[in-house]
């Protein structure tokens, strides 16, 4: 059980590290929020599940950890959605770089 717990914790930390790296590599708020919301939520859940499976955790602490997992799994995506919605409403628009001619060539036809 300890090996599974350590594997979950290590995988969760790796996902959160990738999430942090995405903050520096993505070009605007919308892509950053999309990348970070999913990987950070799953990474945090995996870390808490790993801690929950550790033999040192008693029933009371396990119940509190389960509550934290449920709350964070609901609250984190909701908070990211609220942040992105507020940004959109205040005038921040996604950065769109589209080469229409290249897209038409790729699709093999002309626009109608």
Keywords:
4 helices; 112 residues
Task: Report what the structure shows.
- The chain is mainly alpha-helical and 112 residues long.
- The protein has one domain (2-107).
- 79% of the residues lie in helices and 0% in strands.
- The protein has helices at 2-25, 29-53, 59-89, 100-107.
- The mean pLDDT is 87.
Q: What is the CA-atom radius of gyration, in angstroms?
A: 20 Å
Specify the overall morphology.
elongated
Give the proportion of residues in helices.
Answer: over 70%
How many separate helices?
4
Quick rundown:
This protein is mostly helical and 112 residues long.
Task: Describe the secondary-structure layout.
Layout lengths: L1 H24 L3 H25 L5 H31 L10 H8 L5
Helix pairs in contact: 1-2, 2-3
